[in-house]
């Protein structure tokens, strides 16, 4: 990035940006919103509350050209193996192109549709012949967070035939044990969702679930009626004993954190029906077309990505807060934590060299009105400068007077906070002084439904990709997660053998304290 001609220009421009107060940009230009927003059918990105002039923006657009963003976008959409460290394409966009599906994808959609149909029409029955009422998705990371976030968001518009959905991910087992207390084995179906089908978290929980069903089911065949596998690893699903018609496949060219568009989205299809799931894909596809064909300045995903680069690399902001003003998006921040930080939390370039500039933001978030009563204090008066994404819906979730009342209150709070962060307020009492100047985007969508949710997620995915191109990093691998897994296995073996030899003194000390407490009780 640093060798690109526009980098130096942006560095110089950023000195002026650091010297000006964000609010002054609004004072100088009463029409600032018109100049700094991008509109698409169904959504608006307002980035007028960024500390950015038209000249800064032009240089960012030049930086994108110099980084060959257009070529990289083509590589993404034409299936080049741009995940070079794993020798794979990043093909999540292929899954959303319903007009031109790959044959292997169509085959799995058909299989998934059949399973959805069998659950909805109560043909899929458990060991005792009773129909399935509850579905538990067992998975972690990309095999959990996307479907969890989407099905929570769309719960209010589910198919009347949808079963109750539950999600279990934590390997400590308590989440699953608590859930099982309230479920009946006869009517519960488990989805074992794992791209690799080797993740210990998921496999250990699946084993516990299986033992639970086995403790009620009189036969092995009856037990297996209660399990569906979703994976790229057909041999491992086979070895686990899953029935062939209960095995859904996807492919190595779908990254884990991009897999909610694949058969990993089974819970979404069970909740929304296959048609609803396809509306979700369609929303994402519309953004794919927009991303691939729209000039950068009018391209929402490109602008989102470039704004982040400006804030992170030139204005030195490290934090990004995700603030949806809608409780239906309770799990959005958790989902984006993986999408953004597992993708761009990298420190080597594509050619394997250490890089000497910041990459990924530290992202966190919460439903906006709740966050106001939690961490907004830091954003208004702390020492950290952070960027925020406010997410808002124009349509209320219902039509009653009370719905309208709450909706207006919600809109007012969202707009008030982004304004307060921007303008601040001077006061003689330093405790009541607000520096302001905190930058934000506002993403306004018409409504929250499957299609608009698909649009939003695809926008964030592509924004992550844009940033990775500017930073010259591979956003599609995740080698950083491997070391901890390896050490966990080594320590697990030590714990089982009650042996601490060779471990560092901190690990030894903690293990011995644990064993002491266990012996005393
Ligand atoms: O779907 P799997 O293979 O069980 O992996 C779950 C998650 O684990 C990770 O590999 C990280 O450990 C994620 O990238 C992935 O989404």
UniProtKB/TrEMBL annotation:
Protein family membership: Belongs to the GPI family.
Lineage: Bacteria, Pseudomonadati, Pseudomonadota, Gammaproteobacteria, Thiotrichales
Biological role stated in the UniProt entry: Catalyzes the reversible isomerization of glucose-6-phosphate to fructose-6-phosphate.
Name the record gives this protein: Glucose-6-phosphate isomerase
Enzyme class of the recorded protein, top EC level: isomerase
Transmembrane segments: none
Localisation: Cytoplasm
Entry's EC annotation: 5.3.1.9
Pathway given in the UniProt record: Carbohydrate degradation; glycolysis; D-glyceraldehyde 3-phosphate and glycerone phosphate from D-glucose: step 2/4; Carbohydrate biosynthesis; gluconeogenesis
Source organism: Thiomicrorhabdus immobilis
Pfam families attached to this UniProt entry: PGI
Gene Ontology terms for molecular function: isomerase activity
Keyword Cytoplasm among UniProt keywords: yes
CDD domains: SIS_PGI_1 (cd05015), SIS_PGI_2 (cd05016)
Assigned keywords, A-Z: Cytoplasm, Gluconeogenesis, Glycolysis, Isomerase
Catalytic-site annotation from UniProt: 342 (proton donor), 373, 485
Catalytic reactions of this protein: alpha-D-glucose 6-phosphate = beta-D-fructose 6-phosphate
Main location per the UniProt record: cytoplasm
UniProt KW Isomerase keyword: yes
InterPro entries, sorted: G6P_Isomerase, G6P_Isomerase_C, Phosphoglucose_isomerase_CS, SIS_dom_sf, SIS_PGI_1, SIS_PGI_2
